[in-house]
Amino acid sequence: MRFFSALIAFLAAPVQAEELTVVTWGGAYEAAQQQAIFAPFTEATGIDVITARYDGSLAALKARAADEGWDVIDMLEPTAISACDAGLLAQLDHAALTEGPADFAPAKLRECSLPQNVFATVMAYDPDAYPGIKPTSIADFFDTTRFPGKRAIRKSPDDILEWALLSEGVPPAQVYDLLSTDRGLRLAFRKLDQIREHIIWWQDAAEPPRLLTEGRASMASGYNGRFFAAQQSGQALSVVWDGRIIGHEVWSIAKGTDAPKAARAFIRFATRPDSMARLSERIPYGPARQSALPRIGLQPGTGIPMRDHLPNAPQHGPNYLVRDSLWHSHTADLRKRRFEAWLARGGDGG
Amino acid sequence: MVADELDPAPEVAPPAQRMLILTLCALGIGGAASLAAIALIEAVEWLNRVLLIAPRARVQYEDARMIVPLATVCVPAIGGLIVALMLRYLSPLGRPLGPPAVIQSVQFETPLPDLRSGLTSTLAAMVSMGFGASVGQYGPMVYLGAMLGGVVRRLRLGVPNLPAIAVACGVAAAISTAFNAPIAGLVFAHEVVLRHYSTQAFAPTTISAVTGYVLANVIFERPALFLVQFEGVQHGHEFLLFGALGVLCAGLAIVFMRLVLRMTAMAGQMGIPQMLRPAAAGLALGLTALWLPDVLGVGKEALRFATIEDAFGAGELAVLVAAKIALTALCIGFGFAGGVFSPALLIGILFGALFWTAIDGTGALSTSGIAVYAICGMMALTSPVIGAPLTTILIVFELTRNYDITIAAMVSVVVSNLIAHRVFGRSLFDVQLARAGADLSAGRDRARLQAMPVSTCLTGDIIVATQDIPVDEIHARLDSSPWSEAYLTNSDGRFAGVLSRSARTPHVPSLQFHDGTTVLEAMQALRGFIGDAIPVIHRDTGKLIGVVSEASVIEAYLDISQSLRREENAVL
């Protein structure tokens, strides 16, 4: 590791006093990045990190990247794929950026992006709603007979179609193959029909924990980070990890960057196992590298053992689905069309 | 038998060396067959993706209106044309090869067809499946494994029975890799290919099967074909339903196999040039797939959907079963290269799902859900087609790792197998072989006796004379020999009768063999025969080929029994 720091110092030396604009999401997430990655990076290399915030959209990238001098961008993988296809991102030489590509599995090293952390869509429930038998599997989300109550679901075809098939016992490896067929989509929408009467739609990721704690919903889909934050603020809700859908947050370099060398040095630094572990100790996003998992300890300040709250921690069981970003970005229109038809018709989603 | 001690097998290496050779062969063939099988699957999957056969590739072009329908119609037809060209110009045999050729080679101790035909057949199968034809992957994989094992025949390693064992090793590794099921691979090699259990063959095939499993599962981490969640059979009466499903599956399997044979026979009479036949089948498949996309290719998605309640309506299931049967028979009959194993799995699982839907629809009987019926149907239909009840039961066990579902499947499989064997034959492969003149239905020994012409065991130094030689002279020659009969020919070598020591005029013998008479027929004809020997006459020209004595027919019979007994009881 000393060698590695020296290497980074050496590589960074000619770009000393440079500034690097890193674009990210703000909030607790950015605060954690600041402590875990940005500050240590500046300390190690002398390169100042200036942060900018965006809404994660391709439109923002198109409109602002050149004018504001964006260098490194924190992106959702599907957006990075689309941006890469649109020629907005620089191609990455993965061999030069990381020493262990296999370490990133099951995440994929794509043309313009390197995975950094792992988040998940999970189901959570209000423990007061189920004082007896608790929901434990994704099938329970669709079982309103055994587990009555409202379901809070994001108003989007993302994730819920996958859950519909997972709840039918389809192994994760086959979910996208089946959803690629008309029959699979019809099956998923028929499954949704079973809970149609019980759905409360949400659009803002902050809503699901609130809906649960206010008792307006008994179960909800949502992001594991949001549920964790709600739990930390003392709200009673339980997370079910079965059937979690894992997505990847990636680092990319803007095509028009004026500091490509510093940008690469930053990504190299940020994707080191110890950098990833520092981030995962602060927020419940899992490290994209397997070798970072054992390094994760307690959250500074609170002393919470963070490994229990990470989507890719092995103790949460093998029934998880890694979101296929490529499939998602190529089927976005189709799924949107079918989802809206289903919403409008109130029928079979056909 | 005294003969065993008197007549040891020739050029046998010492036991330690034999053990080493067998182990190395098993490892080498197992590894090679497994890698080849994985490569074949990968190549097919790649083709399916690129050619928009796989749903996951098709869905991404959903918005481009014409691309998917165009690919659906054209790709299988083009694939058919390529297959026809390959078989016509690259393969000396000019036809695809599969398990029947493997069975024949092992059962009759003959070499497999030439390597070039084998390789072309494998490539043609890759193209067939890659371009979406409704044919299976396991037949070609079995042949590929056998072909790699067959290479060992060329080396003279001093291990008795090695060629057959090596072929079986390749087959075991291929099946083990294909299903992630080493026990099923091992059993398949015995049940279908070797057809006997000897320690000498069992150990190497096991090693090969495990090698295949390790490569597929541990090193390449290939996903299992099938995973099913099942809570167990909840009602006793369901076992009767599993049995009934077996009966129906037997019927459907017979229909399927008869149709495959019929299509093959009919293909030649339909006036379509041979070069265009696979393309015609491909076109029919493509047009059907416009309306019923599930019939394209191997159908992994449909396989999964069949285990999910409500994924299909009853009508859809019935149509799909019929379409898949007809199109698979058409594709195979019209010359696509590929097997019947995986189409049988798909037809069976859909039929099992249909059976459950019907039972569930009546509401009269409670059931444990669709999955167990789908799997019972899958295996009960496949078992009679490939003639391997034990293998199919074990495949269920190894794929699902579920004891309950295995026991349920066992009931359906044995019922189905019993009926189909009685009505149709041991398997499609065996019936195909029997129609090609290699009937194994009455056992290995009988098949070998049947395959051996009597002209291979002619008796030496008999007395042959032409008709113009005086009778006294012939009698003199008989007197100075142990024989009591001389065989007469006319001037151009045609058989003209038998002259016995006590007669002055020749007579026509009551018993004559011709060049096509088999040892088995000779054995049966010899009952009650009295005399020295039987003349063997060329069927067309009437020329005397030689004579065969009762003793040499019996000797040939004993040789065959002895070699089979040696093989079946060999330890090393």
Distance between the termini of chain B: 20 Å
Query: Which segments of chain A are poorly predicted (pLDDT under 50) over 5 or more consecutive residues?
Result: none
CATH topology of the largest domain in chain B: the name is Clc chloride channel
Based on DSSP secondary structure assignment, what is the total number of beta strands of chain B? 6
Shape category of chain B: elongated
Number of structural domains of chain B:
3
What does this structure look like?
- The complex is a heterodimer of chains A (about 350) and B (about 575).
- Chain A is of the alpha/beta class.
- Chain A has two domains: about 1-120 and about 245-310, D-Maltodextrin-Binding Protein, domain 2 (3-Layer(aba) Sandwich); about 120-245 and about 320-345, Periplasmic binding protein-like II (D-Maltodextrin-Binding Protein, domain 2).
- Chain A contains 14 helices and ten strands.
- In chain A, strands 1, 2, 3, 4, 5, 6, 7, 8, 9 and 10 form a ten-stranded mixed sheet that branches.
- In chain A, helix 2 (about 25-45) packs antiparallel against helix 13 and helix 4 crosses helix 14.
- Chain A is globular.
- A three-stranded mixed sheet of chain B has the order 1-2-3, with helices on one face.
- In chain B, strand 2 and strand 3 (about 495-500) form a beta hairpin.
- The interface of A and B includes residues 170, 174 and 182 of A.
Features:
heterodimer; A: 350 residues; alpha/beta; D-Maltodextrin-Binding Protein, domain 2; 14 helices; 18% strand; globular; B: 572 residues; Clc chloride channel; CBS-domain; three-stranded mixed sheet
Describe the structure concisely.
The complex is a heterodimer of chains A (350) and B (572). Chain A is built from 14 helices and ten strands.
